[in-house]
Amino acid sequence: MEAFLCPSLVQFQEVNFAYHSMDGETPVLSNISFSVREGEFLSMVGPSGCGKSTILSLIAGLLEPETGSIFFPKQEKTGVQANIGYMLQRDHLFEWRSVLRNVTLGLEIRKQKTKENVRKAEVLLEKYGLEKFMDAKPSQLSGGMRQRAALIRTLALNPELLLLDEPFSALDYQTRLSVGDDIGTIIRKEKKTAVLVTHDLAEAISLGTRVLVMSKRPTHILCDLPLDFDPEMTPLEKRNTGQFQQYFQQIWKELKRDET
Ligand code: ADP
Ligand code: MG
Q1: 89: how many CB neighbours lie within 10 A of its CB?
Q2: 8-21 and 67-71: which strand pairing?
Q3: Which residues does 120 contact at the CB level (< 8 Å), separation at least 6?
Q4: Residue 3: its pLDDT value, please?
Q5: Ligand number nearest to the C-alpha of 167
Q6: Ligand sitting nearest the alpha carbon of 49
Q7: 58 lines ligand 1 (CB under 6 A)
């Protein structure tokens, strides 16, 4: 409940969005309003093609709303652009660079590869079980380790807000469970604000502190559900609670009702 007292990092106000092409218009977002508060882990679920990735692109500034607005309250105050990190389904690690040099690539590109920042990246690799693999090539890592390395690369840039677009969907089911657990735990320990997009309901509930349930296109918000789990519980522990089952049923019903 604490999250409600925190300032918001991003606010969508009555955002409408459509893609335009030679074949015509694809209306995607219909009057979307919500905000992401500092410290929150917001999960977004909805049917495939409903516009979840589009929402992340709007947050990242890669797209602009047609009508309505997207505010970054802090940015309005300080004039400093929000530092946003993006993590995608494919990890985009480069095979010709070592794990450490992959993790510091973003720093290099931003010309922030100071000794101090590299040390921070090393500390993250040590803390999250990759210290022995710093000089390894990405192909020597398991799928789960690769995703951890990709997350650490994003964290090395010290983002205020992390955008995760189906980051586990390329993994097999078992790996997916444990990697989801890992990634969720790292984000919580590093006290990051995150928006996770997924079509996996169980993943949304076990990782999030709040779930936004999206309708099919043109998308509106079906329900906005704060999750009231013990914050010390791991994602896997949450999956074994009655509370989890209740949230699952509730969201499932909303999605089913929208389908018909
Ligand atoms: P989701 O991430 O929820 O699966 P997307 O945000 O990727 O959905 O896409 C929403 C809708 O917009 C889909 O119907 C998709 O086909 C369409 N779409 C996505 N990107 C483009 C584009 N660049 N041009 C035209 N249509 C697009
Ligand atoms: Mg998508």
Answers
A1: 16
A2: antiparallel
A3: 156, 158
A4: 46
A5: 2
A6: 1
A7: no
Paired residues of 70 in beta bridges: 12
Query: Any idea what DSSP says for residue 131?
Result: G
Q: How far apart are CA 213 and CA 80, in angstroms?
A: 31
d(CA 69, CA 210): 22
Pairing of strands 67-71, 41-45: unpaired
DSSP 8-state assignment for residue 234: -
Q: What is the pLDDT of residues 138-184, one digit of tens each?
A: 999 988 899 889 999 999 998 999 999 998 887 788 888 888 888 88
CB of residue 26 inside a 6 A radius of ligand 1? yes
11 alpha carbon to ligand 2 midpoint, in Å? 20
For the stretch 34-46, pLDDT in tens is 999 999 999 999 9
Q: Quick check: CB of 48 below 6 Å from ligand 1?
A: yes
CB of 22 sitting under 6 A from ligand 1: no
**Cβ 219 under 6 angstroms from ligand 1:** no
What's at 148, amino acid-wise?
Answer: R
Peptide bond connecting 231 to the previous residue in cis, omega within 30 degrees of 0: no
Residues by chain with Cβ below 5 Å of ion ligand 2: 53
